[in-house]
C-alpha cells in the first residue's frame, strides 16, 4: 500500500484554514464532551449543516467533524473525574478510579494522566489506522451476529477480574444490568417487555439516564447524607502533575488498552463504552495485585482513557474502507460524505486520496492540539472542586437534570433518572459497586441482539455459535480468561512438593 496519500494529506491538514478549523473543532468537542448526555453525535449533527451551507470543501468539513469527535472523547473525562458525572458513554469507566483520585486531592494529576493516556491512545491508533485500515476492515466484515455474541461472552469472562472479595455482589450487579436491558420493545417479536404501560419505557432504559442516575444522583445523595451528619469535608486540590516515573508506569497499561480499544472500535456497533469496559477489566486482571483499582489507581484511569480514544479512531476504519459506520458518530459523518456525493469503500484511498489523507493527517495534528490545549487547563478545571458544597451539590444536580432533559425532552426521563439514583444510593450503602451494573447493561444489550439474530439466521440451531474459526478462537480465549487465573491460584495454594 502506497502512503503518498498521507504526505498529500499533511499538506491539506497543515493549511492555515484547516488548522484553524481543527482548533475550533477540538475546543468545541472538549466543551461538548464535558456536558452530560450531549455527546459528539449531537454536536456533529448540529454543525454538519452549518459546515455544508458555509461552502467548506469536503476535507475541511470532515476535519471539523472528526476534531469534534475526538475532542469530545477528551472532554468526557473532565466531568467524569471531577464530579462523577460521565460526559459520554466512553467516560463511564474513567470515573471508577478518576473520581476517587479527585476526592483524594489529586484532581490535577488525574486530569493530566487522562489527557496523556488519551493522547497516547489516539496517536497509536492513528498510526495503526494509517498502516492497517484496509486489512482490518476486511477482518471486520467477517464478524457476523454469532461472532459478536461470542465476543460479548469473552467480554463477560473478563468481568471475573472485578469480583474481588465479594463475588456475590458483583454477580448480582451484572444480573441487574442484564435485567435492565430487557426493558422495552423486543426487537424481534415487537412485544412490550416490562414497560408497565409507560410510553417512555418502550425504547428501554436509555444508557445516559442509567449512568447519570447511578453515578451522579447517587453521589449527590451520599454528599447530602454526609452534609447532614457533618462529615462532609471540603476537598483539597494539589497542583501536582504526574511525575515522569508515573507516566512511565502507565505506559504499558495504556498500550494494552490502546490495542484492545482500536480492535473493538474497528468492529461496527461496539463503540467506546465496550472498549473502555473490556480494557479496564483486562487491566485490572493483569495489574491489580494490591486491590487498588477502584480506589484511585492511575493504571485504572489510564487504561479506559487510552481505549476510548483508540476506539473512536478505530471506528473510522470501516467507515472509510467499507462504507459501514463503526459507531453512531461515524454514521453521521458517513452522511457528510454522502452530502458531497463521495462514496466510501476500498477505492476511496485511491480515488479520494486528498480527502482521506487530509482526514488522517488531521488526526495526528488534532491529538497534538488537544494535548497542548488541555494540559495547561487542568489546574483551572480542578478548581471546580473548591466550590462550596452548597453550590457544588445543586450544580451537579442541575447539570444532571439539564443533560437528561436536553437529550430526551421528557420529564418522565428525569423522574426515571432520580428513581435509578435512589436505587443506586441504596446499593452503594449496601456495599455494591456500580461498575458491574453498567457493564452488564452495556454488554448485555449487544449480546441479546446478536444472539437473537444469529439464531434467526440458523433457524434456531445453536451450532452457529461454534461454526466459524473466529468464533472458536473467541470461545477458547474466553475459557482461558476464566480458567488460567483459577489454575494459578490453585497452583500457588498447593503445598510445596505436591502437584498443583
Structural summary, described in words:
By secondary structure, this protein is mainly α. It has one domain (4-493). It is 72% helix and 1% strand. It is built from 22 helices and two strands. The chain has helices at 4-13, 16-34, 39-53, 58-83, 94-103, 107-140, 145-158, 167-181, 207-229, 244-249, 251-266, 272-287, 298-314, 316-322, 328-339, 348-351, 353-374, 378-382, 389-408, 411-429, 435-458, 469-493; strands spanning 184-185, 192-193. The chain has a two-stranded antiparallel ribbon with strand order 1-2. The model has no long low-confidence stretch (mean pLDDT 81).
What topology does this entry show?
Layout: H1 4-13, H2 16-34, H3 39-53, H4 58-83, H5 94-103, H6 107-140, H7 145-158, H8 167-181, E1 184-185, E2 192-193, H9 207-229, H10 244-249, H11 251-266, H12 272-287, H13 298-314, H14 316-322, H15 328-339, H16 348-351, H17 353-374, H18 378-382, H19 389-408, H20 411-429, H21 435-458, H22 469-493
Antiparallel strand pairs: 1-2
Helix pairs in contact: 1-17, 2-4, 2-17, 3-4, 3-15, 4-5, 4-6, 4-13, 4-15, 4-17, 5-6, 5-13, 6-11, 6-13, 6-14, 6-17, 7-21, 7-22, 8-21, 9-19, 9-20, 11-12, 11-13, 12-13, 19-20
Amino acid at each position: 500500500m502506497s502512503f503518498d496519500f498521507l504526505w498529500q494529506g499533511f499538506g491539506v491538514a497543515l493549511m492555515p484554514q484547516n488548522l484553524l478549523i481543527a482548533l475550533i473543532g477540538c475546543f468545541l468537542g472538549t466543551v461538548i464532551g464535558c456536558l452530560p448526555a450531549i455527546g459528539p453525535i449531537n454536536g456533529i449533527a448540529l454543525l454538519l449543516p452549518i459546515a455544508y451551507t458555509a461552502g467548506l470543501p469536503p476535507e475541511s468539513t470532515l476535519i471539523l467533524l472528526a476534531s469534534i469527535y475526538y475532542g469530545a472523547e477528551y472532554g468526557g473525562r473532565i466531568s467524569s473525574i471531577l464530579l462523577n458525572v460521565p460526559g459520554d458513554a466512553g467516560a463511564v469507566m474513567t470515573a471508577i478510579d478518576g473520581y476517587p483520585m479527585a476526592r483524594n486531592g489529586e484532581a490535577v494529576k488525574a486530569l493530566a494522566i487522562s489527557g496523556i493516556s488519551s493522547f497516547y491512545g489516539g496517536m497509536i491508533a492513528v498510526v495503526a489506522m494509517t498502516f492497517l485500515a484496509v486489512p482490518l476492515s476486511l477482518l471486520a466484515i467477517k464478524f457476523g451476529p454469532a461472532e459478536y455474541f461470542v465476543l460479548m461472552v469473552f467480554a463477560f469472562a473478563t468481568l471475573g477480574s472485578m469480583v474481588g472479595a465479594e463475588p456475590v455482589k458483583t454477580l448480582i450487579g451484572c444480573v441487574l444490568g442484564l435485567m435492565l436491558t430487557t426493558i422495552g420493545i423486543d426487537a424481534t417479536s415487537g412485544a412490550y417487555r416490562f414497560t408497565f404501560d409507560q410510553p417512555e419505557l418502550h425504547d428501554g432504559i436509555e444508557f445516559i439516564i442509567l449512568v447519570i442516575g447511578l453515578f451522579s444522583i447517587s453521589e449527590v445523595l451520599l454528599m447530602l447524607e454526609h452534609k447532614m451528619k457533618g462529615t462532609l469535608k471540603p476537598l483539597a486540590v494539589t497542583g501536582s502533575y504526574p511525575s515522569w516515573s508515573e507516566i512511565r508506569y502507565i505506559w504499558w497499561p495504556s498500550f494494552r488498552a490502546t490495542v484492545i480499544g482500536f480492535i473493538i472500535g474497528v468492529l461496527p456497533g461496539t463503540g467506546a463504552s465496550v472498549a473502555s469496559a473490556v480494557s479496564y477489566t483486562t487491566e485490572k486482571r493483569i495489574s491489580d495485585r494490591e486491590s487498588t483499582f477502584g480506589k484511585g489507581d492511575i493504571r485504572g484511569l489510564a487504561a479506559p482513557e487510552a481505549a476510548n480514544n483508540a476506539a473512536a479512531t478505530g471506528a473510522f476504519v470501516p467507515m472509510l474502507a467499507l462504507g459501514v459506520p463503526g459507531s453512531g458518530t461515524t454514521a453521521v459523518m458517513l452522511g457528510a460524505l454522502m452530502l458531497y456525493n463521495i462514496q466510501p469503500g476500498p477505492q476511496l484511498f485511491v480515488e479520494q486520496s486528498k480527502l482521506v489523507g487530509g482526514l488522517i493527517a488531521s488526526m495526528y495534528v488534532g491529538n497534538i492540539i488537544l494535548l497542548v490545549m488541555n494540559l495547561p487547563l487542568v489546574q483551572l478545571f480542578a478548581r471546580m472542586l473548591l466550590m462550596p458544597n452548597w453550590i457544588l451539590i445543586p450544580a451537579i444536580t442541575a447539570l444532571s437534570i439539564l443533560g437528561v432533559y436536553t437529550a430526551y425532552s421528557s420529564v418522565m426521563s428525569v423522574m426515571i433518572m432520580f428513581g435509578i439514583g435512589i436505587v443506586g444510593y441504596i446499593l452503594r450503602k449496601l456495599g455494591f459497586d456500580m461498575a458491574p451494573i453498567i457493564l452488564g447493561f452495556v454488554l448485555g444489550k449487544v449480546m441479546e441482539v446478536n444472539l437473537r439474530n444469529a439464531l434467526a439466521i440458523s433457524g434456531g440451531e445453536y451450532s452457529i455459535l461454534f461454526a466459524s474459526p473466529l468464533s472458536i478462537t473467541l470461545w477458547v480465549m474466553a475459557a482461558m480468561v476464566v480458567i488460567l487465573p483459577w489454575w494459578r491460584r490453585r497452583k500457588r495454594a498447593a503445598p510445596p512438593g505436591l502437584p498443583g
